[in-house]
Amino acid sequence: MIILKGGRSCINAFMVIVNLKYFVIDIILPGFHSQRDLLFFNFRARHLMNDLQTLMPHSKSDSKLDRKDKLFVVNEVCEMKNCNKCIFFEMRKKSDLFMWISCTPHGPSAKFLVENVHTMDELKLTGNCLKGSRPLLSFDKSFDLTPHNLLLKEMFTQIFGTPNLHPKSKPFYDHVMCFTIDDNRIWYRHYQIIQDGSLLEIGPRFVLNLVRIFEGSFGGATLYENPNYVSPNEHRRMLRLDAGQRYRNKTMAKNALANKREAIKDIPEDEVEAVFHTITQQEINMAKNRT
């Protein structure tokens, strides 16, 4: 999370935002300016962000952001808080969680759809790590194959890496954050490093489905667009179409069976059908009684 430009010390900060509440993360390093991270929350992402805040020893709570404001307001908040990195969590329709990663105020920025969210309290895994220790960041080799994944790797490194010599951090590593690319998505996992070198998962878990990468902060020209991305609205529409098609197929089969039964009733009686009928003793007795 330390960026040096031309040999000069500079401010490297990031902000994690979700519509309502944010946390200011203040980092003091010898010979460097203050570094601050802001985290914004809403009700849906609160538990996930609480887990991420726990994993970030350089965080503290602060005031709120009006959800009616447009995303460009985040750049102003970053400027007021002296921040140049930002993560914004946006909730839509109370079910679709989107995550923005941005370098404010000039960009670039990336937008993700957050899927399969599982918090540490929900998973109850056996892994554990000391609060305040610095994490190792592990990236899949697929991040080095394409330019847009290289950009995302650098942004993740600056955001999730705990700065060295921070007052609230511990001077050792006992957990690792893994970012893996599979099925055109970025899978996040968090593990504890035990003494024999093996790993125990801690949590949380979530999957990032990349939507677009923009040239500016929260907008601008599109640098990369994921061709495999399907919006949640389109996914729900396809599910409704599939459900409707199954209902139509079931109705058509039911009507076809009813028409078939009606057609059977209209078949005339075969005149030669009785040729192969075997006369029983009961039928002979019934014929005698009639006579």
Automatic annotation (TrEMBL):
Main location: nucleus
GO CC list: nucleolus
GO molecular function, one term: rRNA binding
Subcellular location: Nucleus, Nucleolus
Keyword terms, alphabetized: Nucleus, Ribosome biogenesis
Biological process terms in GO annotation: ribosomal large subunit assembly; rRNA processing
The keyword Nucleus is annotated on this UniProt entry: yes
Family the entry assigns: Belongs to the BRX1 family.
Functional description taken from the UniProt entry: Required for biogenesis of the 60S ribosomal subunit.
Protein name per Swiss-Prot or TrEMBL: Ribosome biogenesis protein BRX1 homolog
Protein source organism: Paramuricea clavata (Red gorgonian)
Highest classification ranks of the organism: Eukaryota, Metazoa, Cnidaria, Anthozoa, Octocorallia
